[in-house]
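Lab meeting prep.
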Amino acid sequence: MFNGTENPRRIAFSSHNLSALAGLMLFSFGLGSVHAFSVFLPAMERDFGTSRMVASLTYSIALASLALGVLTGHRLYSKLAPATYAAATSLLAAAGCLLAGFGGSVTVVWIGYGLFFGGANGLGYGYALQLSAQAMPRRKGLAMGAINAAYALGAVVFPVPLAAALDEGGWTAALLVLSFAIIVFAAGGSILLARSRMFYARSAGRSASSGDVDRKVIVSFWLAYGCAVMAGLMVMGQATGIAWAADASERLIVASPAVVAASNMFGCILCGVMLDKAQDRVLLASLAILTSTALIAMAFLPQSVVTIAGLAAVGFAYGGVISVFPASISRNFGVSAGARIYGRAFTGWAAAGLLGPGLAGWLYDLHGNYRMALVVAAAIAVLSPAFLPRVGRT
């Protein structure tokens, strides 16, 4: 039975490893639906008679709960077999969606979708990342990139069936569809995980605990990660607005979120593969430069072609960052300590997610365009490599 501590040369591409990775990708794909929340906004406003701001708080609560799940989940990873863990967290996520669908009030939606679905999402997403590193110990970058790509794909695919369900059956029907889909993909993932005969090994890799790591190192990772993802999260939250401000065609405006998401998935995979053969710091610095260059071009050359290309570049870099950071931390500190350290660094992502889109909207309202928001995001992106602590291969 593979426990994450065997000779990596013998297990790099075994059928058990590939089965585990495929199961984790299915599991992650279902959880990625949490980021399709924007499709629910009009229905929430209509069915609950609430404002856009109040409805949007649901997603903010989900992001905060997601971050909390990633931060604390490492305490649970070794308690259950992978198939059981995937099933349990997915059932919690599905239960949260059902509660939101039948609750009948905004407060219940906040609890169901925001707290339960968001929290289960963090528990599952963090687990999938860390277990994939054990499944492919010599290809951690590729493995974690695949998980992130599958997770992002969920956000791309789910809006279509959810929008159709909203049109046909309303709010409750859409949440029922979402709950069912989460369970179906989790079931498929759990079957593959059970076939892989894998389990989460706390002792895999280096044995140092996060408590042995200087607090300054963790703070540095927090700042570096937050600065690195700020632009991507800002762009994902404002993609259609940025395209509209650049006088893009209606077709390009509608397609802009998909452009960012598709580039995000491509960045997850390619940068994950590159990390297995490159220096972490060099790769992250390159992604920061790409992000900053694209943002500056979008700010001072507000033409539709430049803007769409810039959105694609920022999406690609964001996908690279969210794959490189967890893999880099894992290979520098080991899987067990790395899971705890990454959980703390991930709260920097949550902070950027709460701050970035709102900051862009505020600066747009203040100046009547996105130029200042894009320049600020470019400056923040450039700062990211400077905060990276000098440890191991980073």
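Slide two material, second protein:
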Amino acid sequence: MIRFPQDFIWGASTASYQIEGAWQEDGKGPSIWDNFCHTAGKIADNHNGDEACDHYHRYPEDVALMRDLGLDAYRFSTAWTRLFPQGRGQPNSKGCDFYDRLIDSLLDVGIQPWLCFYHWDLPQALQDKGGWTARDIVYWFADYAGYVAEQYGDRVEHFLMLNEPGSVAFLGHLLGQHAPGLSDINAFLAATHHQNLAQGLALKLLRELNADWQLGTALNLQPAHAVSESEEDQQAAKLFDTFANRNFLDPLLLGGYPALSQGLLEPYVKNDDIAAIKQPLNFLGLNLYTRFLIQANSSSLMGISQAPPPADAELTDMGWEVYPAAMYEQLMNLKEKYGNPAVYITENGAAFADALNHRGQVNDTRRIRYLESHLAATQKALAQGANVKGYFVWSLLDNFEWAEGYHKRFGLVYVDYADKQRIPKASYTWFNKLICKGGFTLSQLDS
């Protein structure tokens, strides 16, 4: 039996743009993802998040699903433009009321609300002023986070500043695959530093507002492995690790950028920035799905590229290698090199090609095996002293999966996008039993 501590927190995570829908209802303003999705050719089959899972209207049903699942906590994000349609100025009372209702509904059934201020849906009005490439955004974000925390902090104890700033920088500002669709090394570097600084200013402000709030942030940290033992591939992996992982970990927890990136980031760093970024955390959120397999590639940007997974590797529907050892490696890395901070795994899960069978059920045994293997790796790290406090599965619901549209399903609950019906999968039942028992047997790992 793989067991977890009695006080271990079990949760599920979602993101506002991926589930809420109601994209221009009740005064909500446009975000960069609204505009990106409405640009032809950006999203698979020109899908968009206009309706998504219609969580904005169906949240009572979704809270009931969380209750029946037995969750201790639910991590969600507030849509910045639902609260401030133009990113700043007068708050939108109807948007504020929505999150009031959601939070109260969670508390009514004994679920802790964990509120993330930013999960990628920047107000378009702020993007028009430069977005994450403009230094002023660090103050815009801190003002927004301060307002949200004061609005809901009488009932919410746990706040996360950002979700995956590395993904925002890489996919949105370097590769152009996500909103705002920029492909510019300078935009990438500016977005990296400005997110770190915005996060630090928000942490400092919230700590001054209420010392009892539990404050953290969620970083995507996938180990970077060289595809070979060659010096070129080894150096490529170190460089990738620097820009994808350490550029966000090191200034926050160690108080400085890594040597490999300092020179490139220097034009964006002002006198007191590093001190402002290194703020005390109550916890670090870890988002992890796989590992990065890296090779040197002189024809690619920065001379590095991702290598294909091994030929015999099991892949998820995203094409990602199922590699549970990455979880153990990353948790031990945080223990040994970063002072062993309190860690909550804030995202972990897998997309598979789920379909209803003739009985109207989804028997997603591959997802169950994926979750078991990653939780076994988590427990192994915990047994060796890693300071792991909880686990939030990604995700509660099938949802809008960014550039992939509605083609990739990560949820414990199947969503029929035609009528928005929710159908719990086999993994939902498995996760409920895990929570009730505080652990699971390894019997299914080899099935």
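Talking points for slide two:
The first strand starts at residue 2 and ends at 3.
DSSP finds 15 helices and 15 strands in the chain.
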